[in-house]
Write a structure and sequence with these properties.
Layout lengths: L1 H11 L2 H10 L6 H20 L3 H10 L2 H21 L1
Helix pairs in contact: 2-3
């Protein structure tokens, strides 16, 4: 059930959604960074949700600016904690 909901949500996300969310979090995300984040969300969301995304995070660290990567990692940790606490 969660998989279907998550997949539908991801299918509806746009690059502008990612950029706007960054602004809300006090971060300027470039179009290129939004494209990278979007690509990883679509391709690897199950790894981020269920698995160990250490290798993916390492790739992202090399592709994104340090500010964007650090904020992304921070938000990921917060989200994982919320998911863990709901279980």
């Amino acid at each position: 059930m969660n998989d279907l909901i998550i997949q539908k949500y991801i299918n509806n996300i746009t690059l502008n959604n990612i950029i706007d969310y960054g602004k809300k979090e006090g971060l300027i995300i470039t179009n290129n960074e939004a494209s990278i984040i979007y690509e990883y969300m679509v391709k690897y969301w199950k790894v981020f949700y269920y698995g160990d995304p250490k290798n993916l995070l390492s790739e992202l660290k090399m592709k994104l600016s340090s500010n964007t990567y650090n904020k992304l990692e921070e938000l990921y940790i917060i989200a994982k904690e919320k998911i863990k606490n709901k279980s």
